[in-house]
Amino acid sequence: MNAPSLDVRTITSAExxxxxxxxxxxxxxxxxLQTPAWGEVKGEWRRESIGWFDGNTLAGAALVLYRQLPKVxxxxxxxxxxxxxxxxxxxxxxxxxxxxxHLAGKGAFxxxxxPPVVTRRWTADAVKKGIADDxxxxxxxxxxxxxxxxxxxxVSQLRELGWRPxxxxxxxxxxxxxxxxxxxxAGRTEDDVLxxxxxxxxxxxxxxxxxxxxxxRVDADDLERELPAFWELYRHTAERDxxxxxxxxxxxxMFAALRAExxxxxxxxxxxxxxxxxxxxxxxxxGGHTWYSYGASSTEKREVRxxxxxxxxxxxxxxxxxxxxxxxRGITDTLDPDxxxxxxxQFKVGTGGEAVEYAGEWDLPLNSLIYKAFxxxxxxxx
Length: 382
Known about the structure:
This protein is an alpha+beta fold and 382 residues long. Among the domains are: 129 residues, 3-Layer(aba) Sandwich (Aminopeptidase); 138 residues, Gcn5-related N-acetyltransferase (GNAT) (Aminopeptidase), CATH 3.40.630.30. The protein is 38% helix and 26% strand. The chain has 12 helices and 16 strands. The strands form 2 sheets. It has a 9-stranded mixed beta sheet with strand order 7-6-15-9-14-13-12-11-10. Strand 12 and strand 13 form a beta hairpin. Helix 7 packs across helix 10. It comes from Nocardioides jiangsuensis.
């Protein structure tokens, strides 16, 4: 689509949400990081919803998060996993040029975005063979099952337009992961999905049921009680697995904002064994795409496989609600069996899904001097 007449301007949250609802209802896709509610979750950033207009028709939308530089009233404009535009266009400049003009007018010294465009896919079987092959170290060493022409076109056009890829070592982009693991659900039954899983996953799901693990989809009335219980388990998980936990207030804000936008946008699942909370997970949904967003598990009673039971409940509910994709989110690109990160991909590969590479995050400096200083600051901080 050639769209030289596109104009970008601020839109209301209601207009933004209506556009996403219409786009996803027609089979389109949008990340939960591009919903108006996500701007409320990221309260430390200034937020704006912007729209692309072809005449009076809203043709695209985005959530923009502005992070101010210390002591200077200039901003990095960040569009996580967005914008939601026609990425199949052979003339992306028609979409991106009016966007950058608008953002520059808002005081942005640079723009960072993450096109929601797949570039390559690998089957679970190919990934497993790669891990077992001593000559293979990364996903890039394994022939993909699919190379996306649209993805290749987007990457090529962005380079030509002066955008800079922000991928870093290990396959994680500067903000959001470039590699995800997903289970395709369209046209499949629970039996189909179970058959696609490896023996260990199927065994663990059966064992949880046999041990009497009960998984509950927490309703609104119980959320106030159950969210702190999730957070205590999540804090325990962070201590055990050596990562920095988010505060309880973050999850309270996240649930309040996303549930206000759509009642079933975000759901908490709890897995209990004989009354003890052994696992808890968070599911997010936009249109036909569902995401496993956060998870927590107890060190005690790991043998009852509460985490597998919670995952299976979320997958089953995703199938039941007509979702096309169940997204287990980020993985690194390592297939080296000696790398500590390989355990994560092995866990996710067991679901029988596919590894998916996105175009990654890209930066466009609008003020080269300020952007250089920002880039240097980020590298020193990292």
